[in-house]
C-alpha cells in the first residue's frame, strides 16, 4: 500500500540519534536547547518551547494563555479534534466559526460574527500547509482583548507575506509527528511572541517547576530548591527526539521543494478535470504543503476513496468536522452549524504527499484517480 504520508529518515538522522544514545543525556538536555533555538530562528526569533506532541503543544498554549471556564475559544471545525479539545479540557466553551469553502481555512468574517466579550483566543489552523489570514484575524482579536493562536501542525517551514510561520500569530503550535513536515518521532513546539506567555508555557510543560530564586515564596532553603506555583505536566521533549529534529531541520528546504514539486504535478494533471477540484492557494502565501486535499465532486468521495484504497493507494480524509465527534455532539453541537466546512469535508480526499514519493508513484496516483473519476 502506497501511504498518503511517510517520514523521511536519512543516515544522518540515524547517526544524530545514535550519538545521543552514546552520550550522557537521553531526556531533556543540550539537544533540546539546541532544537528550541533552531525552531526559534525558523520562527522569527520568538522563544520556542518544545514538547512531546502537537496535542501537547496545544494544551500548553491554551494553559499559558490562561484559558479557563469563563472563556470562549473561537476555532475552525476543519481540523484534528485536539485544536478544540485541548481548550475544552481547560473548561473553555468552544465556538466554531465556518471556513472559506475554497481553502478550508477559517473565515475571518465568520470569526467576527462569533466573537463576544468572553472570547479569549481565536485559534486558526493552517489547513493543508498554507497559513490562515492572520492579518485579518489579529485586529479582530485585538478589538476584544483576545489572542491569536496558529495551529501550524501542517505549515512549519512556510510563510505568508514574507513572514515565517511562527511570526504570524501571538502564539503558534507545531507538530513533529512522522507524517508532518519534519519529525522528532513524536513531538511538538509552542512559539510565543510574548516572553511572559513563553515562560508560562515552559513552566507548564515542566511540571510547573519554578527555578528562579527571585520568584521563590520559600526563601530559606538551599541551592537545591525549586517550587511549584501552578499545576503543570511533564510534556518535555527528549534529547533523542531533539537530535532527530535538528537533523531533519537541515533538510527542511529540500522537503519543501519536493512537496511543492509534487503539488504542482498534481495540480497540472487534475486541472479542468470534470468531477475534481484542485486546492486553492491564498494570495501572498508560500505554503509548506503537508496535504494535497483534492475535492471529489458529485457525491463520489466515498466511492473514490474505497477504489483508491483497493488499488493500493493510501488516500485519507482530513477531517470530519470537529463538532460531529460524539464528545461535542453530546454537548448540543448540531450538524449544519458550519455549512462550508461540512461541504468541504464531504468532498475532501488527501492524496499521497511526502518527500520520498517518487515520480513513478506520483504518476500512479494521477493515472489511477483520473481513470476512476472518468468511469
Q: What is the topology?
A:
Elements: H1 11-21, H2 30-42, E1 47-51, H3 54-64, E2 72-75, H4 82-88, E3 93-96, H5 108-114, E4 119-125, H6 134-144, E5 147-151, E6 159-160, E7 163-164, E8 171-175, E9 188-192, H7 195-205, E10 209-210, E11 227-228, H8 239-249, H9 252-270, E12 276-277, E13 285-286, E14 292-296, H10 301-310, H11 326-329, H12 339-347, E15 348-351, H13 359-374
Parallel strand pairs: 2-3, 2-4, 4-5, 5-8
Antiparallel strand pairs: 1-9, 6-7, 6-13, 8-9, 10-11, 12-14, 14-15
Helix pairs in contact: 1-8, 2-8, 3-4, 3-7, 9-13
Pfam families: DegT_DnrJ_EryC1
GO molecular function: pyridoxal phosphate binding; transaminase activity
Cofactor: pyridoxal 5'-phosphate
C-alpha-based Rg, rounded: 21 Å
Topology as a string of helices (H) and strands (E): HHEHEHEHEHEEEEEHEEHHEEEHHHEH
Percent strand: 5-15%
* CATH topology assignment of the largest domain: Aspartate Aminotransferase, domain 2
Helix content: 25-40%
Largest sheet: 7 strands, mixed
Work out the helix count.
13
Structural class, by secondary structure, is: alpha/beta
Oligomer: single chain
Output the CATH class name of the largest domain. Answer: Alpha Beta
CATH architecture of the largest domain: 3-Layer(aba) Sandwich
- The domain count comes to 2
Shape: globular
Strand ordering within the main sheet: 1-9-8-5-4-2-3
Termini separation (Å)?
22 Å
Low-confidence parts lasting 5 or more residues at pLDDT below 50? none
- Give me the CATH superfamily of the largest domain: Type I PLP-dependent aspartate aminotransferase-like (Major domain)
Mean pLDDT: 97
Total strands: the figure is 15
Enzyme class: transferase
Keywords: Aminotransferase, Pyridoxal phosphate, Transferase
Modified residues (N6-(pyridoxal phosphate)lysine): 180
Family: Belongs to the DegT/DnrJ/EryC1 family.
